[in-house]
Specification:
This protein is an alpha+beta fold and 506 residues long. It has four domains: 143 residues, Schlafen, AAA domain (Methyltransferase, Cobalt-precorrin-4 Transmethylase, Domain 2), CATH 3.30.950.30; 74 residues, no CATH class; 159 residues, Heat Shock Protein 90 (2-Layer Sandwich); 94 residues, Arc Repressor Mutant, subunit A (Orthogonal Bundle). The protein is 38% helix and 18% strand. A seven-stranded mixed beta sheet has the order 13-12-16-17-20-19-18, with helices on one face. A four-stranded mixed beta sheet has the order 1-2-5-4, with helices on both faces. Helix 9 packs antiparallel against helix 10. The radius of gyration is 24 Å and the shape is globular. The C terminus is likely disordered.
């Protein structure tokens, strides 16, 4: 969040969604009561380094790093906050005073601080541990509001896809060195992500609906949510039926990749440069759109989600439990996670931004993408998004750039397919097995994939096996060779770890 917006919040003073803590040289114990209360109620804004009267007194600069580290370790300590909830303070400076800001979203579970339950009211943090009526109502509200927490006690870890859990572990590690998930077992990771829970009213424990939707095998998902699907449709020529379609009824992580691939296949990507670096403006937009379809859907509702690409626009629909109604204004809306644990998983692996910032980016980039037009986001029982798309002769400038880069490669005797490019992009991040690569790219038919894409890259010497003398071993992985790394430099792959298609002269 930008400093101007934070100063406006500070100016309004403390309230049910705003809390100040001075914390000049150390963390106050009261900080974690407020976090617990925010998680249990409506979420809120927590400021460290600000007095009760709203004056920015700042944190001692010699203690800032220590206070930040103490904060992060404490919110991940089950003896302090249970269940734990991963939060990281953001550092800001105003008039030479540094302060920390934390947005704490409402969560779908009941949290305790030092084994006490707090909620937020106008006067601050209220301990309801011994008030059985209010406490019971809190549990009931969480269970009815957040269906992602529904527990399925007969789902076993073998019903989940271990390859997806490992993929999540790798992506989290790539985004943040030393991520706590790195050294956890699969079950510990899922518990840390609150995808394995216990209902403290009934004693039932097991994997939740969120855990199944994120990591479940397809047959398990179909058994639990038989109506689950996302329909991706291209409808520009055949308006009665469709020109292309992807019927997606798999886990949410693979669903994300397939929806993004569908958008990349059928939507132009205008040339755009930001901070001296070219970015994919299309992918920035539809990363938010696709994430919204998957993260904020009400999965117990049988209404089928849709992403439809039409002439001049892309529209989406998904079932929703509305938190407010009407059009969303990015300047004054209050972010509300419909499935906090699913949202958290997407954020931890880099598929989503901080709650609220993604919507503001969406409005910013759509204006550029569509020559000044704004998107529409309408919150009702069916959440609708309309993205205007400029039809400027449907020319995909990024495709032109990729073609030119590929021509440069061919001039050097190289021949790289689109899938080959994606494989090399993936291997920039490290070593991956064939199933991991196929999962990320969203392709099937291992024999065809190996013959058409892996083998040519191996023959050209761009990639190599980690166990070349045992090509069929089950834990075989692939990595870039020196020649592959040199190829990346030659055609100036950019984006996250390098993407074909950069042409500096364009």
């Amino acid at each position: 969040m930008n400093l101007k917006r934070l100063l406006e919040i500070i100016e309004r003073g403390e309230g049910i969604e705003v809390e100040f803590k001075e914390c000049r040289k150390s963390l106050s114990r009261e900080v974690f009561k407020s976090i617990c209360a925010f998680l249990n109620t409506k979420g809120g804004h927590l400021f460290l380094g600000i007095a009760d009267n709203g004056k920015i007194t700042g944190i001692d600069k010699n203690r800032l790093e220590s206070i930040t580290n103490d904060f992060v370790s404490s919110v991940n300590n089950a003896q302090k906050l249970n269940p734990t909830f991963y939060l990281v303070p953001e550092e800001y400076e105003y008039e030479n005073n540094k302060f920390l800001y934390v947005y704490v979203p409402e969560n779908s579970q009941v949290h305790k601080c030092n084994n006490r339950v707090y909620i937020r009211n106008a006067d601050g943090d209220f301990d309801i541990t011994d008030n059985q009526n209010i406490l019971s109502q809190l549990y009931i509200n969480k269970q009815t509001t957040y269906s992602e927490n529904r527990i399925y006690p007969y789902v076993k870890i073998t019903d989940l896809r271990q390859d997806l859990i490992e993929m999540v572990r790798k992506r989290a590690r790539l985004l943040r060195a030393g991520h706590p998930w790195e050294k956890m077992t699969d079950l510990e990771l899922l518990k840390s992500a609150q995808l394995y829970q216990q209902d403290f009213q009934t004693g039932t424990e097991g994997f939740t609906l969120a855990g199944v939707m994120l990591f479940g095998k397809d047959n398990v998902i179909r058994s639990i949510i038989p109506h689950h699907k996302t329909d991706a449709i291209l409808r520009k020529i055949d308006l009665d039926r469709y020109d292309d379609r992807d019927y997606i009824d798999t886990n949410l992580l693979d669903s994300y990749d397939r929806l993004m691939a569908f958008c990349e296949k059928h939507l132009p990507d205008r040339f755009y440069q930001e901070d001296d670096q070219r970015i994919s403006i299309r992918n920035h937009i539809f990363r938010e759109v696709v994430g919204n379809i998957l993260m904020h859907r009400e999965y117990l509702n049988p209404f089928p989600a849709k992403l439809i690409i039409e002439r001049g626009r892309v529209r989406t629909e998904n079932s929703n439990k509305p938190h407010g109604r009407g059009a969303i204004n990015p300047e004054n809306f209050s972010p509300f996670p419909k499935n906090p644990n699913i949202c958290r998983m997407f954020k931890e692996i880099g598929l989503a931004d901080e709650l609220g910032s993604g919507v503001r980016k969406l409005f910013k980039y759509v204006k550029i993408y569509s020559n000044g037009k704004e998107p529409e986001m309408i919150e009702e029982d069916i959440f609708k998004v309309n993205i205007p798309v400029s039809e400027i002769s449907e020319i995909n400038l990024s495709d032109q750039a990729r073609d030119q880069a590929r021509d440069q490669a061919r001039d050097q005797g190289l021949n790289i397919s689109d899938i080959g490019e994606k494989i090399i992009n993936i291997l920039c991040e490290g070593e991956y097995g064939i199933k991991e690569i196929m999962s990320i790219i969203a392709v099937k038919h291992v024999t065809n994939f190996r013959k058409k894409y892996l083998t040519p890259l191996l023959k050209e010497g761009f990639i190599e096996m980690t166990y070349p003398d045992k090509p069929t071993i089950m834990y075989q992985k692939y990595k870039l060779t020196g020649k592959g790394k040199e190829l990346i430099k030659q055609i100036k792959m950019k984006d996250e770890c390098g993407r074909f298609g950069e042409n500096d002269e364009q």
